[in-house]
Amino acid sequence: MRGVKRKKKKEMAKLDLVKEYKVYYKVGAKPKIVEFGPVKYLTIGGKGEPAGEVFTSKIEALYPLAYGIKKVCKDKGNDFGVPKLEGLWWVESNKPALEVPRSEWCWKLLIRMPKFVTNEMILSIQPEVAKKKKNGLIQKISFEKITEGKCVQIMHIGPYSTEPETINTLMDFMAKSGLSVNGLHHEIYLSDPRKTESSKMKTLIRYPVK
Fold first, then answer.
1. Is the CATH number 3.90.550.10 carried by domain 17-208?
2. Higher confidence at residue 13 or residue 7?
3. 99: number of CA atoms within 13 Å, CB side?
4. Contact predicate 154/29, CB 8 Å
5. Taking the CB of residue 81, how many other CB atoms lie within 10 A of it?
6. What percent of the chain stands above pLDDT 90?
7. Calpha distance 72→41 (Å, rounded)
């Protein structure tokens, strides 16, 4: 109708976890001491070569469930952007990780979830998503609350192969600060290796400390 202004549909605000929790996702090239309370995650564990077949299959299970949860939340008026992949790493050996074959590395992949996501919400859609995607691994995904507490973190810029240099910088900082490792090696993959030049890739590296 002429002369009648149509009301614009009000867009739903979408929670951006990276902007909401800047300290969690951002740090400079120098080590920094931070502290975190409990955080909710979708998690799935495994063992083997990073980016190998098992590793990749677990990632391919995590994301469909994360986006399924996003849809449920959006329908309830709580939309959010699915954040970056994270990983906890360790070895079942007294040797330094780099002296252990990569095929024996253990890991737990994580995708952070907003505070309003619940275990009941995930359990209600998990079977449906697994059936739709024809992926039984989706049923093996857990919902965990992890508290790392006091941590030190640093941004690694470059390929994954040069991470040891950045980790050494972090370890030197811990030693000078009278701190010691008190948890698992934690990485947040801020860059997509399929789209980013290796020299410009950003990986946040974190260790709980005491």
1. no
2. 13
3. 4
4. yes
5. 14
6. 88
7. 16
Q: Residue 178: which of 159, 152, 204 has the closest Cα?
A: 152
Backbone φ and ψ of 206, nearest 5°:
-140, 145
Residue 134 corresponds to which tokens in the numbers above?
A: 């024809």
- What is each CA distance from 4 to 1, 7, 10, 11, 134, in whole angstroms? 6, 9, 18, 21, 50
Measured CA to CA in angstroms, residue 146 lies from 113, 131, 161, 193 at distances of 11, 28, 28, 27
Phi-psi region of 33 (alpha: psi -120 to 50; beta: other; left: phi over 0): beta
Q: Degrees (nearest 5) of the Cα angle 109, 202, 102? A: 45
Give the residue among 179, 193, 107 at the shortest CA–CA distance from 150: 179
CB 11: neighbour CB atoms within 10 A? 7
Residue 207 is encoded by which pair of tokens?
A: 């260790």
3-state secondary structure at position 46: strand
Residue 164, judged by CB atoms within 10 A of its CB (0-12, 13-18, 19+), counts as middle
Read off the pTM.
Answer: 0.91
Structure tokens at 101: 């074959």
Average pLDDT over residues 69-97: 94
Q: Are 81 and 17 in contact (CB under 8 A)?
A: yes
Q: Where are the domains of the chain?
A: 17-208
The amino acid that residue 166 corresponds to is T
Contact present, 14 and 79 (Cβ < 8 Å): yes
Q: Which of 93-102, 117-126, 194-203 has the highest mean pLDDT?
A: 117-126
